[in-house]
Every structure is written in C-alpha cells, then in structure tokens.
Amino acid sequence: MYLNLKPGKVEDFTKLVNTEILPTLKQQDGFRNQFTLIDGQRVLGISMWDNRAHAEKYETAVYPEIMRKLTPFIDGTPKVERFDVAASTLGA
After folding, report:
1. Is residue 4 within a helix (H) or strand (E), and if so which, with residue range?
2. Residue 79: what are its φ and ψ, rounded to 5°?
3. What CATH code would you report for 2-78?
4. From CA 33, how far away is CA 76, in angstroms rounded?
C-alpha cells in the first residue's frame, strides 16, 4: 500500500501502526509479516501472507476498519497493489 501522511502526523501514524494495526494483523489467518517504510510524508506498507486467499479475506473483512483508523493521518486515497513472491528468505 502506498499512501501520503498529513503534515506532522508521522509520529502519531507510527504509534498507531505499532499499537493497533500490527496487533490486528497478527491475529489474521495467514498473516506472515508487515514492513512499514516511511520517507518524509510518504509511506509504503508491505504485508506478507501465506496465500492470496488469506490476503483477500483480510482485504474484505478487516482492511476497511484499518482504513477507518488511519483516515485521520493520511492525505488522499491509499493505493493498494498485489504481488506474488518470487523469492523469499521468510521462514527459512
């Protein structure tokens, strides 16, 4: 997911990710890992799932609630893209 933060919201966004978003993700079936990269106001979030079905279930069942929590911190509409993993050391 790509998104832009509102000015002055990086610290609040980071706290929300660590205290609410990550714990919620860890409870989802098939969730493996999350990387949140921040460069100024730009954010790239990469979540890893066991398979596409688990990721799609999250997108329909939980993602809307996550976005509701993030809305006060983001500027514009996040862009979500899906990729398949070609290679990984995750779990190795």
Report:
1. strand 2-5
2. -110, 125
3. 3.30.70.100
4. 25
